[in-house]
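Example for tutorial group B:
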């Protein structure tokens, strides 16, 4: 967690977030008003956080990873736009610029799973990559399939978010089948679960064996491009220096 995130949590009067994430930071937010909801209640907790802020109470909306990557920053701004709430960046308030806003918003950057997972694997994202969520709760599966095929045919390293859940058991296998149409079965695949947490697990396998990997909603999957390789216990994607320079 960044120093700025620590400061925001310390100074906020209230904290809103998914129950699992609230539990991770509970020792840091003792004595504060807490809005905690379960899975699929994102709109409820973001709306509640906005309501508190409109009433004059500073509220920190907590996400895992980075709030702007498959997280709550976009939903918060979307709700503000739908309700025609006059929002401005927090810097505008600090600088005293412009007319007063209904809400001042700060998006505090974090470390997304694709960065923490990549660091644990080595350097699989040194060259171009695409991130795709396999969750079809908000995105039609047909759209996800098109994105998988496009990324695979363009030879991107592919980062898969939300690969599997208790109710979604088949999407990862279907994604594997799509990518295998464009990529060799021996393509290296990095599998990182609970990155930088106590239950952290890191594994390197191959694309043709992906269907048998231990994967959950807390897993991020890194499927190499045709250039990606493994060395010792690391996975990396050369950027092209070896073809231009003597290494």
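The residue assignment follows.
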């Amino acid at each position: 967690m960044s120093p700025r995130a620590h400061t925001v949590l310390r100074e906020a009067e209230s904290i809103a977030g998914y129950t699992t994430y609230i539990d991770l930071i509970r020792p840091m937010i003792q004595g504060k008003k807490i809005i905690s909801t379960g899975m699929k209640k994102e709109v409820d907790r973001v709306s509640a956080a906005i309501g508190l802020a409109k009433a004059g109470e500073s509220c920190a909306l907590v996400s895992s990873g980075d709030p702007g990557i498959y997280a709550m920053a976009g939903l918060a701004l979307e709700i503000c736009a739908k309700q025609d709430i006059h929002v401005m960046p927090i810097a505008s308030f600090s600088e005293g610029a412009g007319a007063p806003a209904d809400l001042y918003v700060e998006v505090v950057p974090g470390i997304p799973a694709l960065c923490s997972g990549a660091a644990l694997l080595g350097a699989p994202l040194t060259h171009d990559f695409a991130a795709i969520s396999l969750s079809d709760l908000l995105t039609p599966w047909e759209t996800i399939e098109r994105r998988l095929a496009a990324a695979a045919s363009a030879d991107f390293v592919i980062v898969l978010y939300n690969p599997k859940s208790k109710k979604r058991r088949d999407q990862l296998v279907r994604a594997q089948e799509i990518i295998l149409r464009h990529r060799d079965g021996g393509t290296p695949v990095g599998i990182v679960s609970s990155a930088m947490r106590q239950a952290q697990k890191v594994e390197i396998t191959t694309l043709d064996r992906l269907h048998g990997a231990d994967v959950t909603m807390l897993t991020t999957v890194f499927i190499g491009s045709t250039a990606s390789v493994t060395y010792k216990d690391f996975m990396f994607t050369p950027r092209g220096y070896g073809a231009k320079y003597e290494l």
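Residues 55 and 129 are 42 Å apart (CA to CA). Compare this with the pattern of hydrophobic and polar residues in the output above.
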